[in-house]
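Recap for those who missed Tuesday's class. We walked through two folding examples back to back. For each one, the amino acid string is listed first and its predicted C-alpha cells come directly after. Nothing is annotated here on purpose, so try labeling regions yourself before you check the end of the notes.
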Amino acid sequence: MKYNNYILAIFLFSSFNFSMNLSLVDFDDPSAHHILDAEIINDVLIVSGMIGGIEFYDISNPYNLNHLDNLTLSGGGGGGQGGGTKPNCIAASGNYLYVTTNRGIGIINISNPSNPQYLGVISGTNGYLLEDLDVYGNILAVSAHEDGVLIYDVSSPANPQLQYTIPTNNSWTVSLDENYIYVADQSTIIKYDYGSSEFSDMLELSNSIKDIYISEYIYVALGSGGVSVINKNNFLLIDTYNTSALANKLDVVNFNGEDIIAISDWDDVEVLKMINNQLDLVGFKNTTKRTMSVAMKDNFIYSAEWAAVQAFEFGEIDGPDIDLDVYELNYPYTNNGESYTLNVEVTNNGNEILDIVDAYTTNGEFSYTSLNDLNPGESQIIEVTYTANSNNASGSYRIISNDGDEPEIICETNGNINGANIGQEAPDFELDVMANGLGSFSLSDNLGKIIVIAFFAPN
C-alpha cells in the first residue's frame, strides 16, 4: 500500500516591506546543544541546553554575545562537560535561577554569572515530568503535566517550600503577575488567584498552549495555532495570528510605547505588534536553525536555537536586507534522467536596492533561474531544478549580495538522499500512544492528512 501523504510543509510569504526588521549582529556556537529555553536578567542572557549544560552571556553590549561560562548540572561551579542532569526550562529572579530538569527542579546561584553555582534540586521533585516555570516576587510556579502546577514560596530563594498544587489534565506552561497565576491546561488558559486552587476565569483556545506572557495583554503561543492575544480585564480573545510554523516560546518588550512580541517559530523568528486590535507581522528572520526560544532586551532579540545562539537588532534597516522563505530544498525521489523543480522566494526586506553580486549552485545536478536585483519590498521566485543521475546528490544554492549583515546566504539542496525520500512508498505501521491520549496510532487511519511524528527518548 502506498501513502502519498508526505511530511511536507510549504510556507509562502507574499511580497511585503517591513519598515522595521531584524538585522543579525552576532552568532555563537556554544557547548550546549538541544537548546530549549532562554532568559534575560539584567545584562545576562542565560540559555539552557538539554545536552552540554547552561550557557551564560554578558549582553551589556547588545551587539556582542560575550560568553561568560558554561555550567553542567553535575555539581557546583562552572565549566566542564558531562553530568547526568538535563536542563529544560529556566526562570530567573534576583541572584537565583530555577531550572526544570529530568531529576527535579534545580537551583543555581547566579550572583556571579561568570561562576554560577549549582545548588542541587528541590527535595521531593525528582518524580515529576517537569516543563515550563515562572517566578514572580516570592512565588515560583512549575508546570508538571498531569501532576498539575506546583506552587512554591521562594522567600528563602535557596530553600523553596511547596505551598499547594493546582490540579491539571496536562499543563505545559504557567505565568505569573502581581495578582494571578495563569495556567495552561492543554488548550485552556485558566486564571487563579494567589493562595487558592479555585479559578477565577478561563478561556478555551484553538490549540494546545506552549507559552504565556503577561503584559498589558495576555499573549499565548499555540504551536501550529499561532499566537493569540487576550484582554486581561474581561478575559476575552482579541485576535489570533497564524505564524508560519510552530509558535513555541515568546517574549515581549515595550518598544516606543508599544508591545513588541517576538516568537520562536521553529524555523524563524517572527515579530508582531498590536495594530488596531489586530496582531500584525512587523519583523521576520528565517534563522536557518531550529529556533526553540527567544529572549528580548530593549530592541534586541536573542534566538536560542537547537545548537546555536544568534543576536538580532529589531529596527529600521537603512540598507538592503535579504531573506529566503526556505533554507533547505528536499526533493522527492526522482528517477535518473528525470527532473523535479522546487522554488525559493528571495525577498528584500530592507530600504535600499539589493544588488545581486552572484548566485549559483555548488552541484551541477541542480540548475536555477536567474536572480535579479531587488527593490525594497520586492520578491522574486527562483526555480531550482534537480536532474537526477545518481543517488545522494547534495549541494547548495548560494547568493552573494550587498546585504551588510548577511553578504552570503545559503539554501541547501538535497536530491535522492540515502534514506527516506519524499515520494517514496511509506509502509503502514501502528504505534501505541504513550502520552496525551490512549489507544494506538495507525498511518492507514490518517489518509489525506499531513502527519508529523516526533520521537524523543526519555532520559
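Example two. Treat it independently of the first, because the proteins are unrelated.
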Amino acid sequence: MTSRLDRDGEFGLAAPSVVSTRATALNSTEPSADELAIAGWSRLSTCDWPDRIVTTLFLQGCPWRCTYCHNYTILDPRTPGVVPWQDVADLLAKRQGLLDGVVFSGGEPTRQRALVAAARQVRGLGFGVGLHTGGAFPTRLRALLPYIDWVGLDIKAPPDRYDEITRRQGSARPAFESLEMVMEAGISVQVRTTVDPTVLTPGDVTRLTELLRDEYGVEDHVLQTVRSDGTSEEYRNALKKTELMG
C-alpha cells in the first residue's frame, strides 16, 4: 500500500465455555497469549470503549516518549508484566454475558506479538475486542485486524509536528499508515487527539482536523484536553509555564 504521506510527498500501515491459555497458535512462530507483558488491569471500565462495559489491559512498553504521556512508568519494554494472562482468562470465563469485551491498551499494545493470540482467544469466547493504539507498528496492526471490533486510534498532530510530540524521528509515517489501514478495513474507529498546548497551536489542530476529514474520511475525531495526572515532572512544569504565558 502506498500511503497518502508518500503520495503527497511529505515523508519519503459458538464460544467455548472454558478459556485455555495454551491454544494452538496459527503457526509455530506466533507467541502464545501467556507471553503478554501486562503492566496493569482495570477489571471493569465504562470509559475505554464508547457505550461498552469492558475489562481493560495495559500492556508494557512503547517505542515513543510522548510529551504528555500519563502512563510513562510502563513504557520500558524490558520491564516484565505483573498480571498473568491466566488471571484474565479466568475472569472472562466467569463474565460471559456480563462484559461486552476486552480493550487492549498501553503503552503501545501492538508492540507485543502475543497480542494476536490473546485477541483470538477473546474473540473465541464471544467477547468483543477493542484496541487503543498510536499506530506505531502498522505491520503488526494488520495481523490484528481480523480479531478487532473497534479501534481508538491516537493521531497526535499534523505530520510536520508529530516528532515534537512523540520525541522520536519518523513517527508520523507509521501512525498515518495505520490510520489509512484501519479506515480501509471498515472497522469502527474513533480517532483521538490529545491537544498538547506546549507543542500544538490552534492552527495546528485545525489543520489536523481538516486533514483527517478531507484526506482520510474520519467522521469521529475527538479532541482531548491534556491532563497532568501521571505525567513526568518535566511535562508538568512545561504545562504550567505554558498556562501562565497563555
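Answers for example two:
Helices lie at 4-8, 85-94, 115-124, 138-144, 162-166, 172-185, 202-216, 233-245.
The beta strands are 38-45, 54-59, 101-105, 128-133, 150-154, 188-195, 221-225.
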